[in-house]
Amino acid sequence: MVTGFSLPIIAPLGPEIFLAVIGCAVILADIIWNEQRYVVPIVAMAGAAATVIMVLKASGISFSGMYTVDSYSAFFKIVCLLGLMLAILMSLRHLDIMGVKRVGEYYSLMVFSCVGMMIMASATDLIVLYLGLELMALSVYCLVGLLKTDPRASEAAMKYLLLGAFASCLLLFGMSYLYGTTGTTDMAQISKAMAQGKLSGNPAFMMGLGLVVIAFCFKVAAAPFHMWTPDAYEGAMTPVTAFMSVGPKAAGFAALGRVLMEAFPNAHSDWMTALIIMAFLTIAIGNITALCQTSIKRMLAYSSIAHAGYALIGFLPGTAEGASATMNYLFIYLFMNMGAFAVIILLQYKGLVGEALEDYKGLAKTHPVAAGLMLVFMFSLTGIPPTAGFIGKFNLFMAALHAGYTWIVIFAVLFSAISAYFYLRVIMLMYMYEPEREMKLAPSGALSAVLAIALTGVILLGCYPNGILSYASKAIMGH
Amino acid sequence: MVHLSWYLTVSAMLFCIGVFGFLTRRNIIMMLLSIELMLNSVNLNLAAMSHYMEDLRGQVMVFFIIAVAAAEAAIGLGIVVTLFRNYRSVHTEDITKLKG
Fold first, then answer.
1. Is A173 an 8 Å CB contact of chain B?
2. ipTM of the modeled complex
């Protein structure tokens, strides 16, 4: 068979290969231009921007169907790359303040984890999916524990790694049973094997399906598999937290959506029940636990758990409308969450100031612009019109209603109202209290750019919501 | 001839021992070892299935899993070292700065 061997067409993988090269170039740039502080982030930033353009142009199928570059994957890749770029901009000044000496490894780990996310979004084979997942996860574990002398960072990294590795083991064990019962790891072939019947009652196959779904729920931080989230979010540096709350989550949803809709469309009734229970639990636990937090990073961690619950609702019907509502929601979530974290970074001047909710008392008196920005992002996270958060939730709930999931929508709206308490509490602290101490801001041009982008995103997507939603539904139809 | 179900039984037992160890041990290095045990039970599963189905995908996946497991162990032990420097301990009950 040597004569029949030919190299696979790697053109569809262009963006991923390019970004991986950029990851290496970042390390080299750090060695060569050790003195100049901004060369490394500029290389990473330019690489990410060029990758966005390449993603928009790339299409095709590579490695005999293991890797599919379609508009569905392009959508998620752009969400991840935007998350990467905003996180790089946020980090510039913050790394100086936190006293990080070698910035090369920081930016290259971010770039490599983004490569992993892009591979996850495009994987149509379980092997490739696993490799993308691990590339993303291993880089993020390192990022969380990057501050080696900070006990909180290493504790957070350890907890994240142990639970993440445990989830990977469950995923692999499930995959091995799927492979054993269907004889393939290709998602389309698994779906074909299911369509031929015989498998629907097979306990080994059902266990495999269950374990794979559970493992992805670990990755997107859905309850009852959310325990790592608050600790990892609190211990990591704030730009890393912002990055983690957007990128890995979007990639996890991309992979979950593809597995559910491409490999298991015939088992819809089985996974739907599990997802409904998890969505219920996630929304309830996320919102209720967020009520009693005193650290704003922990509060946003629980809020991100709750938002994962809302985003899961979109996958319940297994329809294009639902999936595009989830995609739309993740895109909006990128802007509002990145914006909220950017305000926290703005307040972190020395030490941990800006992490406790108490620090926000009277912020409107001393720094009205920062308080105003936080107000917009908190309104958007609550889902109050005319911000984008409202549009995102509205589309999700409409999609679920059209598919007949009335009860879960009622439940989600009720808990959305409960969530207003802890989001609006931040606003109350800022506007209705007197400042207790002098607060210094840590502004920088890059951080202002992040805030401006996030604000524009939240307002524009809130006022003109049709563009991105129609792009998302087109992405699903093309797929 | 060893039947496939024997391999699957051994691998399921190994996996359960790994899960049990992960959930009950309080030493982080033992928890990492439990994770290795779980990963190797998956490898056994895949290799056995691949052999009986006469399909190479399973064995290819085993190689990838071995490589990733090595990377995971390297990073895990690296974090254990930083943890030990900060806390002078690798027991989970001593490492409780993050709560809420």
1. yes
2. 0.96
In this structure, the strands spanning A60-62 and A67-69 are antiparallel
Residue type, A392: G
Whether residues A161 and B41 touch (CB distance < 8 A) is answered with: no
Residue ranges per domain, chain B? Answer: 4-99
Crossing angle of helices A466-478 and A71-98, in 10° steps, is 120
CA of B95, closest CA in chain A: separation in Å? 7
- Predicted model pTM: 0.93
For A153, the closest chain B residue by CA position comes to B83
What whole-number distance in Å separates Cα of residue A63 and Cα of residue A247?
A: 25
pLDDT, one tens digit per residue, over A142-189 is 999 998 888 999 999 999 999 999 999 999 999 999 999 998 899 999
The span from the CA of A439 to the CA of A361, in Å, is 10
A113 touches chain B (CB under 8 A): no
Q: What span, in angstroms and rounded, lies between the C-alpha atoms of A134 and A402? A: 36
Q: Which CATH code for domain B4-99?
A: 1.10.287.3510
Report the residue of chain A nearest B48, measured CA to CA.
Answer: A180
Q: Is A295 helix (H, G, I), strand (E, B) or coil?
A: strand
Numbered residues of chain B with Cβ closer than 8 Å to any chain A Cβ: 8, 15, 18, 22, 28, 31-32, 35, 38-39, 41-42, 45-46, 49, 53, 55, 57-58, 60-61, 64-65, 68, 71-72, 75-76, 79-80, 82-83, 85-87, 95, 97-98, 100
Structure tokens at A303: 């809020």
Residues in chain B within 8 Å Cβ distance of A285: none
